[in-house]
Amino acid sequence: MPDEYTENDYQWIKELLLYPQNMEDRLSFFEDTSQIAIPEDPIQKVIFQDRAKEAIRKIAQNKGHILMVGRPGTGKSMLANMFHRVLDDALGDYLRPKESILAYPGKDRNHIRFTYQDPEKADALIQKIHQSIHLARESVAPFSLSEQIKPVKRVRNILLLATLFSIAGGLFFPPLFVLTGLSGIGAIFMFIQENNHKVQEKIQRDAREGMKNSVKHLEDLIPEVVYDPRKDTDLMARVSEPDDRNMKGGFRHDPYQSGNLHTPAHKRTYLGAHAKSPVIYIDELKTLVKSGYMSDLLEIMQNKKFILEGGRNTGSGSADKAENDLRADNIMIACCNHDTLSYLQNEGDGAFLSRIEDRGEIVQMESAVPETPESIRQAAQYIRQEVINIGKDFRNTWGDIIEKEGYEGVRTRSERIFGQALPEDYKLVERDFSRSAVLEVIKELRCRGNDRKLSSILRPMNGIIKTAEFEAILDNSALVEPRHVRRALRDHLSLEGSMTREILESRKSLKRYIGAMTDSIGYVVGLAVIQARSSGTMYGQPLPIRCQITVGGSDSVVSPGKTGDIAKAAAQNVRASIKKVLKKINAPAIGYEMHIEYIQAHSGVEGDSASVAMDVGLISDYIRMPVNQRIGITGSLTGDIVLPVGGTTEKVRSIMDLDLGMNGACIPWQNKYDIEPLLLNTDFQYIQEGEIPGIRIFRSENKCDPFDIFFCKTKYHAYRILMGLEKQEIEDRMAERSAQDLAFIQNIAKKQTMTAS
To answer: Quick check: is 639 in a domain?
Structure first.
């Protein structure tokens, strides 16, 4: 039969058992992370994103644009920073601007002009202008009354001569002494007048000492250096909220607009990233879309120049404008998530994306990468890099205390933080990870990925690694061991993970109550996942399902509650699968109402991964056979075949908690590789239930607390594991139940006929 297992199938399952040893061999190049070398190339420090790194190198070579699209935590910002470093080392001397930008007055008070000038020449020009204005300011003519003093002095001298001649003449002609008196009095008066003018001159000179000419009208004409390449040497501008002001620049408001106090427009000018920075990095394009700057950016990217305008802001600067263009030949580095990308594809028929592709590339960041020897090596390198960063953080935070008080001071102060006594030889220094601890981190990356891939969403892992470091420090362990990583994983959860933990706690008592109060007929433990919106991390949880088939009425399936469209379609597929079996065994056509209840699934259910669980529950109720409540099941049912589903690793891991009381799980055959990470750092063995292969994982030391995982190809294999019945037994019981239902319907119809007659 096509659903039977072959020898190759059994061999494939046994090969899964080799996975832990293969992982050990791949990590055999180190004993702990201190032996891992960190590459000198900064781009190689970003792991997993090989396609993005290749695109970065090409764009750095060709001065193109790049748009990185991916989930948060995949390394977009880190790659942008590395691109900046590589570009600066390779072409920075040529890309960095070498000319100053000067602003001059324009044709009127609201217009300015820009010029590009060598910085040294610009300094010399402005210095020369300042010197000329300084001379004009200082060139104040001294106050003088010499023009008034000269005629007074001349008249005085004439009167003195007349006095002398009249005295000489009076000796011979006495009446001339009258002239002597008059001329003498006149000479004295003129002498007094001369002295008065000199005093006035001195008073005025003393009063005007330090006075300078008003040269504001000349100072308003001095050009303003709005950009000096010697002062602003950073090659890349990081813009968090792109808008007119920080991307293009603008004009500041002038509070003194009346009288002779106003500030000219060119002295109120400031420039943005387009005019000053060869590389512009926009960390989140969604902010650019929200700010409405997209149309301006598209125009600048097309023309590589722009006119500086006052913009839409109020105030004196809103009317100001430049008369000539500013250059804007920028390299654009942008990052966004997939929701923003869908907007960009529709906005202007994808004009922004077209401009990016014209001179660059749009890069899809990997959310998960295949598990290869190279990706495993990169994962170990990533852990080593994080250990180094943690050491730097320790030294930055505690360096002064270590220098002044030594590690004894660190221990004393740390005891106050943790509220517990620490070992006498306690040292706050970073611990390297042992090889088995690295395996534990890789195990987590693999569990968070799908299809034999490692998750590339590393930001949540940074906190886990740091928490594991602190666990090792508090244990005073020489290395970080797997137990420290497990503690960190238990304590370091996202919001969705914390919610899942609370749900699991409630499901423990719920499962016990259902098991104690029911005969387990129609009840089945499905497996579900909750996905974190921020990181995409999945968290598994058990999903109890109650199924019931009622004879008579409409031939339908009912799934009440917050059931999504896919889940409803899955229920219809299950109904069709059961009807197909009934037709195959020649069961009479009788209407059945099928009811499916997801117990306490208040947040709703979506997806088809519970379809095989629904089928098991309905068949259990139909043939009155209890289902093993200690084994969970997941899978997508298509006809009789069980197809693979997502999140299988997390689903299985969620029910391996000993307190939950679960002993195993049935998963689709094609999800067999999702079990590989669960075999790391634990004991396991191959098992077989009839023809169904499986793996037994021991959850405790000394091979205690087994947990069995079975790989099912068809729903009949699930029946065998959960109800202990073979295919023929199931079909015989279904035929028997169908005959009973037919007899029941005929009996009712007969009674109704007799009553009517």
So the answer is: yes
